[in-house]
């Protein structure tokens, strides 16, 4: 039967050869595929959020965006979403750092008031 198809296709001008067709065999899936960009993005996002260093959070956003762009069917999108949220929270928390009181005009080097030195037990000079 294959020879008949080959003969018919050769006579009709069809260049395909059905006797040379190899059926498709999908590759065996790998055991565990490590998403490097997503993992590094998650670690940098947590580091940026906990240490309140903005550069870690900005780099984490770049890694998470890269992992999101390169995702495939078996990529865990929840992990990418969490890493993105951690990096955004890291940027948000780094902007909420309390400033030293000297930046707001309070004088911390002023002389102590007489009431405060009397309460501390030091003699009050009049």
TrEMBL record:
GO CC, alphabetical: endoplasmic reticulum membrane
Annotated keywords: Membrane, Transmembrane, Transmembrane helix
InterPro entries per the UniProt record, alphabetical: ASTER
Main location (coarse class): membrane
GO BP, sorted A to Z: protein insertion into ER membrane
Compartment list: Membrane
Gene Ontology molecular function terms on file: protein folding chaperone
Regions crossing the membrane: 42-68, 80-97
Entry keyword annotation includes Hydrolase: no
Protein family per UniProt: Belongs to the Asterix family.
Protein name, as recorded: Protein Asterix
Record lineage: Eukaryota, Viridiplantae, Chlorophyta, core chlorophytes, Chlorophyceae
